[in-house]
Structures are given as structure tokens and as C-alpha cells.
Amino acid sequence: MPRDVTALNSLLSVICRDGRTVDAKALFDRAKAEIRPDADTYVILLEGWENEVDAWNGRRTFSEMVADVGWDPRNVPAYDSFLTALVHAPSPVGGVSEAMKFLEIMTVKRCSPGPKFFQTALGELVRLGDARGASTLWESMVRRHACYPDTGMYNEMIALQCYVGQVELGMCFFEEMVFYPALPDAQTYNVLLKFLLKGRKLGDAVMVFKEMMRNECPLDEANWHLR
């Protein structure tokens, strides 16, 4: 049996990396009578449940963590792993909707996950074609949690809005990229051009095309045929 929390955490980490988070949790349950766990202990277990896509046990461990160490804005990795595990898990135990419920609770408690959760959740909402849910997540991410999107996230959001017929909203996301550390790339320009040309929005298409050429991004062959 480990003698202190540092040794316990090291052993739990090794066991979880081996894909045996159930065994790690059993060891934790035996050890906690003598060793007080810290925030890192729970991070290790939650990362293990995330890697094994076990939202059920993740929820139980998360509840234990909150009861034991409370809500701590510094505990970002734990919140990140827990919410990401929920996104990957099937309903009713998991899913994006469940993750969003817990995100709201975290917001009230002045705690936040990290970018991994937001990237994962956005990707799932894009896969589902849920533009409204993606917009809600985006607003929470940027306005309430000060987690700023990268180029890949902008590309997903712009493509989603365009595919559901909201090309103007896609343009709005494109135009706001300059305010964040996210630069448009070839994918950004080509997706916008495709839908602007299809919608005969030629003024916007010309503007996007000029910027694209100025930034030396290649035009997709498919877009040549839409001109």
C-alpha cells in the first residue's frame, strides 16, 4: 500500500494507463481510509474513465471529487476529462446534452473545462448537424469561459452554418476570426466560396477570393467549376 498521496497518485496513474481504471478505483477505495486524496488523484481517475469511455463510473468519481475536494477553478483537467467522457458516451448516461447540463453547473460554480472538451463537443454537434446546439456551446465557450477557438474550430462552425443554409452566419464567424488567435486557411476560404457561389452572393465571394489569393491559399478544383 502506498504511504502518501504522491506515491498513491503515481501508482494509480500506472494502472490507469494500462487500461485498468476499475482496478485503480478499487485501490483508491482501499487507500483513502489512510491517505487523503488530492485533486490530482481524481484527475487521474477521471482521465482513466475518459479513456475507457466509462461515463457511468466517471459520474460517480466526479461526485466523490466534488464532495471531497469541492469546486476549484484550478481543477480544469478534471472538469475537462469528465465532460469529454460524457460527450463520447451514449445516452442517457452521457451525450452532449448531459455534458451541457454539467457545464452549466460548473459555470454557476465559476469553474471551467479546458479546450479539449469544447473541441470534442463541437465536433460531435457538427457531426449531428446541430447548428443551434453548436451556437449555444460556442457562446458559452467564448463569452462565459474565455476559451477561444482555433482555426479548426472556426472551420467546423463555418461549415456547419453553411450546410444548414446560414451562409450569412458563416460569414460572421469568418469575419470575427481576426479578433482571435485564429487565421483562415485554405479550408476556411474554400468552404465559404463554395456556398457563396452556389447562393450567387457574388460580392462576398469576390471579397473572400481576393483575401484568399492575398494569403496564397489554393483554390479547390471543385470551386473552379462553380465560377
From TrEMBL:
Question: Do the record's keywords include Lyase?
Answer: no
Q: What is this protein called?
A: Pentatricopeptide repeat-containing protein
State the family it belongs to: Belongs to the PPR family. P subfamily.
Q: Name one Pfam family in it.
A: PPR_2
What's in the keyword line of the UniProt record?
Repeat
Q: Where are the PPR repeats?
A: 185-219
Reading the lineage from the top rank, the first entry is: Eukaryota
